[in-house]
Amino acid sequence: MLGNTKKKIVSILFIAFVLVLSACTSGKSTPTAQDAPATNESVKESGKFPKAATNTAAAIEGGTMNYGLISDTPFEGILNPIFYSGNPDFEVIQFFYPSFFATDENFDVKDGGAANISFSNDNKTVNVKIDDKLNWSDGNPVTAEDYAFAFEVIGNKDYDGVRYDTSFMNIVGMEDYHAGKAKTISGIKIVNDKEVQIDFKEADPSVKSGLWSYPLEKKVFGDIPVADMSSSDPVRKNPIGYGPYKIKAMVTGESVQFEANKDYFHGAPKLAGVNLKVVNPNVVIESLKKGDIDLASFPNSLYDGKNVPTNVEFLGRQELSYDYIGFKLGKFDKAKGESIMNPDAKMANKELRQAMGYALNNEQVGTQLYHGLRTPATSLIIPAFAQYHDDSIKGYNYDPEKAKQLLDQAGYVDKDGDGLREDPKGNKLTINYAAMSGDTISEARAQFYLQNWKDVGLNVQLLDGRLQEFNSFYDRIEKDDPDIDVYGAAWGTGTDINPAGLYGSKASFNYSRFVSAENDKLLTEGASAKSFDMAYRKDIYNQWQQLMIDQAPVIPSLYRYEVQAVNKRIKNYDISYGGSYDSLAEIELTSDKPEVQQ
Amino acid sequence: MWKFTLRRILIMIPQLFVLSVLIFLLAKAMPGDALTGAMQANPNVSPQVLAEQREKLGLNDPAWQQYGRWVGNLVQGDLGKSYVHKIGVADLIGSRLANTFYLGVAILVLTYLISIPLGILSGRYQNSLLDKTITGYTYLSFATPLFIFALLILFVFGFQLGWFPTSGSVDVGIDPGSGSYYANKFYHLILPAIAGALVSTTATIQYLRNEVIDTRLKDFVKTARSKGVPESKVYSKHILRNSLLPIAAFLGYDLTGVLAGNLFIESIFGYPGLGQLFLQSITQRDYSVVTILVMLSGLLALIGTLLSDIILSWVDPRIRIG
């Protein structure tokens, strides 16, 4: 026993030592491009994670689940969906203040949640009907007024969060209200106690998935000035929700004790309660092994597929985001509010961009650096949008020969015999690649890409010779720093399929500054009234995906998977998109004590 | 003595002013601001809205205006509002300060409890096996990175043996203010404090050891011995007192260092304190918090030197300045 412990301590020390060393020499541990697997079959490997807990033992009555909030900082404690900004806060909120709406596998609202929606014939008006039994945990009913109040707060000029976006601006009268020209939002009408009607300026199919989905209790917040709401007690100290659990006690930033909400409109949850605590990523594996936590979102960078706890089950699903390689093609003209392409930009040559895409072995990055938690991306619409992702598009598969061929054709050939290609005019070609620092894998991945590009004869250098910290990375990308030619970044997609905010010619987040009439036309069509017809919208977005792959202003590089570690005593937990509205309320335990790894 | 103290305090005013200008300019020179990355939280957020928010926060004003506003508010006791946490900076820091203070005091007390006896023993029995063991320990603890040591301690005593809680500063659901609440807080404090103390004893032990060895050979010690003072009394009365001088010189810094926060320990033990808050505020460009925290640590450093000088002149009349 003692010897065993000793061995473990030594191995921990050793691991820590190796971690420190590998942090210094991560460049060396980069896999070389030569060991590339021959096939693309492992693309589908991430399907190996089940989406639901497979435990079939008999459930016990009640029980308390321990939830690990994996974070190296305390949660901020802004426990309200209208005001929070950090993901840790959201993990707390989901237990007691869930979304109004149930959603299907396309993230569109479907019936069965705390409120249902219906559209008018011209799709410009939506009617939101709140469940009759839905009550706040302080006993008051959740009313139409509460829902309308949320719009009034978010649209208020004193509101200090980031939720006021284009979907709000599309509501009739919202911009006047926001500017202070109107006291109320003319497009939001309270029909009766439980029904609200919202008029939109344009029929926008994104409303189906992007409609604001949380009420705010007017009886509690009505008297608080909007600017003070986010720091008020009902947000910080005694938050009230309507979810399956309610807060019993809390140590802000550290832990929350939830108890079952017996009054929950779908009936009391199976568990008696949930204890949530913040767990540092450094100790998450130990905490899981010991059964300290039953359920946690597992940090991707710790997952290696081998040294993982055996007393837990891993559930996986696609993350709503993708990594991409962007090419700087111009500048954003602030005065005009639109992107202007520069025909003389270093990356203006389409074949060059395509070649850089074919040169990347993302297959190997996914399997070796991310242990299968990232897979090569083929299109800018991620497969999680099952209806819209176009399977037939193959994207930029690793094909160095094709890359070389494209470069030869475009005139990028090695004229001085140093093994690196010159540009078509015969000048030396050095491409600057900006990459973000982040986890331990970032450096290795950037170096690997540089090697990939070198393999096809392109001289690509890391911008400033190092990785860029998050803030300075985006600062320089946003300001169109002329030193940046190529950059590696990622986008969260949210649940709204519409990519216009990231790629339209007037969008300031269109960081590549790519402009094309065809692109703008398709993006407008995809968000038009006609696109309420799903088949039509699918066709439009298929064309758009193909266009972006052909033109290659950005090249999707990796799709991401998120995994959750679930103790084997947990039953009835399903994380698939479009699954049950009550996934947290349905969780059961099959034992009083958590499974422990010996 | 009072004149000296007063003069030192008056000098602090221009020092703090220069510090505030430097801090402000450096903070503003960091690329990005609190709204960089807002589109990661909500991909639909429109750039106009971000521009509006920047305007509202005054981020578009010229630097001197922003500085004037900041210092003006500061002088009136308004520390500003955290953009990330959406509460007043004073409240935010206040909520973390208590934890940091407890942890800092616990580490300080433990450090002295461990290092003073060890330093004296090591100096008294110079070159013995005991001395070598203690010196060996100081080298080892000096060379051990805190974050690895903290992980190791947590692994052994928290997870393997299960003697101590593995994260947090207090268990949830205990009535704040009750006896069991403080007992529970203390229970959570032990492990992080031990981890912090065991690797910060080196300087004190080494200083003390050298001083004891030096003082042992001084004439007044020989005199005491020759007068027949018992050996134990020679050490406790004559040598120890004189050897503690350099330790006293550091006490001022140590006392204010209590509030500096300890990033590694706080994050590994999930113990919310100022160290973590500082790092998080820098990465998220929460200017109002960053500037106040740096100001605070600057102020503490100034007070620390003052305290050290006062303590030193109090215990050692020779260096008293007239």
Could you walk me through the main structural features you see in this protein, from its secondary elements to its overall organization?
The complex is a heterodimer of chains A (598) and B (322). Helices cover 27% and strands 20% of the residues of chain A. Chain A is an alpha+beta fold and 598 residues long. Chain A has 3 domains: 44-96 and 243-311 and 568-597, Periplasmic binding protein-like II (D-Maltodextrin-Binding Protein, domain 2, 3-Layer(aba) Sandwich); 99-229, Dipeptide-binding Protein, Domain 1 (Dipeptide-binding Protein, domain 1), CATH 3.90.76; 318-561, Dipeptide-binding Protein, domain 3 (Roll), CATH 3.10.105. In chain A, strands 1, 8, 9, 10, 11, 12, 15, 16, 17, 18 and 19 form an 11-stranded mixed beta sheet that branches. The longest helix of chain A is centred in the first third of the chain and has 23 residues, at 2-24. Chain A is globular, with a radius of gyration of 26 Å. The model of chain A is unreliable at 1-46 (pLDDT under 50). Chain B is built from 15 helices and no strands. The mean pLDDT of chain B is 83. Chain B folds into 2 domains: 33-78, no CATH class; 91-315, MetI-like (MetI-like fold). Chain A: It comes from Paenibacillus nuruki. Chain A: Belongs to the bacterial solute-binding protein 5 family. Chain A: Residues 119-508 form the Solute-binding protein family domain.
